[in-house]
Amino acid sequence: MHDEHAIPNPDESATPEDSADSTDGASRRAVLRTAGLAGAGLGLGAFTGGTAHAQAPQGTPAAAATAAGAPARKGETMVGVPFDRRSTVRVGIVGLGNRGGSMIDLFLAIPGVKVVALCDPVKDKTAAAAKKVTDAGQPAPATYTKGDHDFENLCKRGDVDFVYVATPWDWHFDMAKTAMLNGKHVGVECPISLQLDQLWELVDLSEQTRRHCMQLENCCYGKNEMRVLRMAHAGKFGDLLHGAGAYNHDLRGLMFDPDYYEGPWRRLWHTRLRGDLYPNHGFGPVSNYMDINRGDRVTHISSFGTPALGLAEYRKAHMPAGDPSWKETYIESDRTISLVQTAKGRVIRLEHDVSTPHPYSRINSLGGTKGVFEDYPERIYIEPDHTNDEWGDFGKYAADFDHWLWKEHSNPPGGHGGMDYIMIFRLMQTMQLGLVPDFDVYDAATWTSPVPLSHLSIKAKGAPQEIPDFTRGLWKKARPGVDSQKPKA
User: Fold this and answer.
1) pLDDT tens digits for range 59-71
2) Long-range CB contacts for residues 70-75, cutoff 8 Å, separation at least 24
3) 11 pLDDT band (50/70/90 cuts)?
């Protein structure tokens, strides 16, 4: 991408969902695994009922996640818990496809970071990534290529501090869980899980193992997003009232490309769920603006979805007779629209659309009593700076409100306008200096919860679904987040 709000090209789409890590037999096994979940009702307790409440089967953690309160805490909170300080961060990477194969370059670009282990069932991808490590002057990493579960052996290593997961969605929960149970901090591409009970399990495991489990939401580190965040915290928008975020990105060509989403795991999710499959890119930044889990919290979500027509029309126009895709029936709404309520009465609008033609947009909007910002294209109107109902120049606020990370790294390497590098640099910095991470497992669970809950709300004709309080009451306390102070050391 040319900048943080440019329309991405097909090889640089602004999304970690491009993180397929396996091909051929390996990817087919992953697809079969997903199909098995689908045949068993996806294992999603929140999807099995027709009520207006997100219920899980009795005995699962999510069963108690209703208005009556969260399930009992099994360990101490991870709110405000710093990393142990370490001069060198040793990283293991699981998944070396589109996403992992490019993100390794950013880990290698950061001083004090060593890539010590790599895992992907496809040996050629692992070998190519290992060459990048040695070309960067680091020792040859250990490699794990013996099947779908060899990541378990990587997680058992004693010389790995942090596990980075960039695989198809089906594996995210298992890999995060395995990493924590083996004493590793873990960062996972979006979404961290698609099941409500699994989100609770990750929260509990993080607290029990004392290891951080993070949703690596790169859009939280976008230049525009961080500027708006600092302006919001400075009171430029007044009292905050509403925000909006989205993942509106035409992925039809990529989803039917036999070589891009291998399996093709990404398209197959459109045969299983009707709700917002990918809320994190929009929800994460707006949650930061409103200090969700840091003084406010999201309480309910109501979702609506259009008919699922786009993928079938694209298939009819572009796929030959006999292609395996003709056996698929798509149920995922072409566009989902969700309204999220917060405890302070604010409203967040979320959208998702990857199966109809439209320009790329994450919407990225914030409004309050003094004005509003809207992105794609960027524009702002706040009093008393602007008058006569005419949009102002957002760029004029750069000098005063750009985050210190963007001032320090004005031309960062990597894709997506540099936000990927800023995210990884900051995460590694917090580990090296022994700081509290900018976001934690409670944010991961909150930002991903619209996946199962929007599906259930659509099934219930828009009935509101309760969003669990994953912090178990600690959301009421203000605390730092992505709007960080520059470290002194």
Assistant:
1) 333 333 333 368 9
2) 70/468, 70/469, 70/470, 70/472, 71/200, 71/204, 73/204, 73/207, 73/472, 74/204, 74/207, 74/208, 75/204, 75/207, 75/208, 75/209, 75/210
3) very low
